[in-house]
Amino acid sequence: MHSERPKPLHRLCGRPMVLHVLHALAELDLERAVLVVGHGASRVTKVIGEQPPPGLHIDFVEQRVQRGTGDAVSVALTAFPEDDTEDDDIIVLPGDTPLLRPPTLAALVRTHRRAEAAATVLTARVAEPTGYGRVTRDRNGRVWRIVEHSDATEEELDIDEINTSIYVFRRSVLAPSLRRLTPDNSQGEYYLTDVVEVLHDAGYPVVSMVVDDPMEAAGVNDRHQLSVAEAELRARINERWMRRGVTMVDPEATYVDSTVELAPDVVLYPGTQLQGHTVVETGAELGPYTQLADCRVGARAVVTATVGTNAVVGADARVGPWAHLAPGARLAEGEVTGPGFGGGAGPVE
């Protein structure tokens, strides 16, 4: 049975996968971001245009023919103004690494600049490197080549340091190096990884930074990896809210989208799912087994075993158990309601 590979617009914790990457970039001091799009370009640009990360200027360029990662970066460079400083650095990363943390990206840039490198590769050491490009080094220990798994020798397959496909390049040497790439490989594509060898052989310094947690740089290539990334993101979200004063009786059974807003002293019981742009105010108690999407819950309200969409629950209101808040439903402050409320009757004032 064929299983379609997850795409950048697959949602994790309420946000398209590529938006998690862009939000990580948005926390750096960047002049602009360029997103290379291919199949489904119009849908990608529409989704990101509707909810761009704050403060990040994004340009879109289309790779009309899929000829590899090296060609994709060549296309991306066309979006950068020619009058930009040649000494600028360019960060390159895939759109399917939603677990990457901003501090890791910032450390990668610092490593690159301290070494005055032409290229810096983010690498990881993993126990099972199957499928990943291996990082090879010269006799002096410097990064020499990145060999794709399908092109690696038996000796190279034993290397446990892998390429994460995340780089920083000095802009002045990137374009000339890309022009020297050839599709002489098993895939017949222009590999961005080959730029590393081009720069090394030309005498430019190429360095690496090993990421502390390999999970950060994990790509999402199938539905299993998608579920692993989802679980990790949810754990991070829950930890952040608990450190801000939210009580989760059972964090592993509590699901909060990255777009949800919670006030301090909110209590979430097991089985609670908060989705979309739900906002919960101070002292509210939700669950167990409550699912709300795009709802607003007032201070000190109690919502038990309830499903709701685009509804408003007033402060000190009591809802459920076994209630349904239909789209547009509104409970006044202090109102009490039981099973079946709002089940299709429309807005209630």
**Number of extended strands:** 26
Principal-axes shape call? elongated
Strand content: 15-25%
Our Rg estimate from Cα atoms comes to 24 Å
The helix-and-strand class reads alpha/beta
Strands of the widest sheet, in order across it, are: 11-14-17-20-23-26
Task: Tell me the span between the first and last alpha carbons.
Answer: 51 Å
Largest sheet entry: 6 strands, parallel
Relative helix content:
10-25%
In the CATH hierarchy, the third-tier topology of the largest domain is known as Spore Coat Polysaccharide Biosynthesis Protein SpsA, Chain A
Give a quick precis of the structure.
With 349 residues, the chain is of the alpha/beta class. The chain has helices spanning 17-26, 41-50, 69-77, 102-114, 154-157, 171-178, 194-201, 223-243, and strands spanning 11-12, 15-16, 33-37, 58-62, 89-92, 119-125, 134-137, 143-147, 161-170, 206-210, 247-248, 255-256, 261-262, 267-268, 273-275, 279-280, 285-286, 291-293, 296-297, 302-303, 306-309, 312-313, 318-319, 323-325, 330-331, 336-337.
